[in-house]
Every structure is written in structure tokens, then in C-alpha cells.
Design a protein that fits this description.
Layout: E1 2-6, E2 9-11, E3 17-24, E4 32-38, E5 45-51, E6 56-58, E7 66-71, E8 76-81, E9 90-97, H1 105-112, E10 114-115, E11 119-123
Parallel strand pairs: 2-11
Antiparallel strand pairs: 1-3, 3-8, 4-5, 4-9, 5-6, 7-8, 9-10, 9-11
Amino acid sequence: VQLVESGGGSVQAGGSLRLSCEISGWTYTNFCMGWFRQAPEKEREGVATIDNNGVTVYQDSVKGRFTISKDNAKNTLYLQMDSLKPEDTAMYYCGAALNRRPMSCMATIQSLGHWGQGNQVTVS
């Protein structure tokens, strides 16, 4: 399984960015996929996840501003980030794991996931 991210960069507060994560080698219909971030000297935290049933979960701080989606035809995961704030500055990672309900997707990916290389997002 390989995850390749793109789309990070620098933006002013209030701006928008879209992250993409192309996933190859994933042959299962069952999945948890999501976006995580890690700011300097902080733990990696879950931002948003989506599962094979289309159920999405967001961290409270990004609700209403970020949207996670998946294009199955392109095997690509997206994170649309609007109304960005300086506190959103971090390295963003996409992750994928098998859906192991009732375990949450965030917990599953954190502990068992495959990861992309990371993409820096800087909001000033």
C-alpha cells in the first residue's frame, strides 16, 4: 500500500487549501481513511476520517471548516480546508487502515495505519 500526498503550502488566515492523497495497492472494500496532523512539539492528532460506509468524523476544531471526501474512481482521498487559522499550521498526513468497528477510525489508523509522507500546511 502506498499513499502519496500533494497540495500543501502556505496561505494567509481565512484562505483555503485542498490536500490530496493518492492511494495505490489498496485492494479491500473495507477501510478507514483519514487525515492527521502534527504541529511542532505536539502529538499527532486526528483531523478527519471517512470509512467504507461514507461515515465521516471530524475533530471539533475543524468542524464546519474542513471537508473530507474520497473519489473511489481515482483512489484519491481529499481534505478541503477553508477558513484556515494559524493554529491549523502543521504537517498533515493521510492514513489508511482496515475498518475494525467498533474501534473508531481515528484510533484504528493511529495504531495500525499505512501513512503518506506528510505535507506541510502553513497559515499566517
